[in-house]
Amino acid sequence: MSTKARDFRGVIRPVGAVVLGIGVMIALCAGVGMLWDRFAPDPVRPQGGAAELALSSIIVSAIGLTAFLYGKRHVSERITRREAILAVSLIWIAAGACGAIPFMLGAGMSPADSFFEAVSGLTTTGATVVTDIEGRLSRPLLLWRSLIQWLGGMGIVVLFVAVFPSLGAGGKHMFRGEVPGTTAEGLRPRIAETSFALWKLYALLTLIEIALLKVLGLDLFDAVCHAFTTMSTGGFSTLDASVGGFNRPAVEYVIACFMLIGSVNYGLYYGLLRSGSWRGLVRDIEFRSYVAIVIVAVVVLTVLNLSVHDEVLTSFRYSFFMVATTISSTGYGTDDYSVYSSTALTIVILLMFVGGCS
Description:
The protein is mainly alpha-helical. The protein has helices spanning 12-39, 50-74, 81-99, 101-107, 111-122, 133-136, 139-154, 156-163, 169-178, 191-215, 220-231, 249-262, 266-275, 279-283, 285-304, 312-327, 342-352. The termini are far apart. 47% of the residues are buried.
């Protein structure tokens, strides 16, 4: 007895919608970066780049619109779990490929390097192939490089589900295929509301960090870019020397705190805001274990690094940042870890395996 083959062409619709959204984001970076160069020029960084991003936006948007219209003709009434998994996989591949186009046109990078940079950003891995960030990347491109990490931090699929609540059960399948851990259980009855709630929390924390960094004297552009890549725990910086290039202890402390905040289960934050009580957060065994690991690691590393940094406060400053950037898998740098003792390096390596509260 023969069975009818499942038509998977409908999954092209959500893929096309996400790619179209990426095209809009590229256009936004082009416009904002151009205005920044126009009204607050920075002689140190390369000027221009908006035209290349605008062209990239047109190309990506055209691809996304074509895919969306094609998938719309074949979309089924209900997205199954199998289709949702396929859609999530295709979305990440397509996002990486389309996100690479601005690097190809704006920085003259090869397709392989551009794809690597885009995927590294979207997955918040933080690895980079750009060796001269300050001399090669313009403001629009730096903004795009930071934005893709911010989008990938919470998840572009989670954003898509929030924007398109009409997906219903299919959106729930996509959400669970994207979000790891207990967060995927859903925080509200409707999965679209859950996605939107998570993104609102994510955006609010990002705005708070931008404001704090600006108050501490950081340039607004650097504050925005570093807030994007801090909250996403991605680690892309606008400087070759990373956060250490600012040489501002207060900025380092704020970024370190937000790296730790960004690596905590967002379901706990949502529960805190909804109930107005810290009890659920404090009693959570995952959160308590995470805080305990951070405290112990900072204290031990501070003591061990006294041989490198003579003063206790200086050792604490660099040790706290090192623990935060390592345990959250962000990857910012302020200290030369090559001079650490073997014991200190072992602790740092072990912290890498924690990976926040994932």
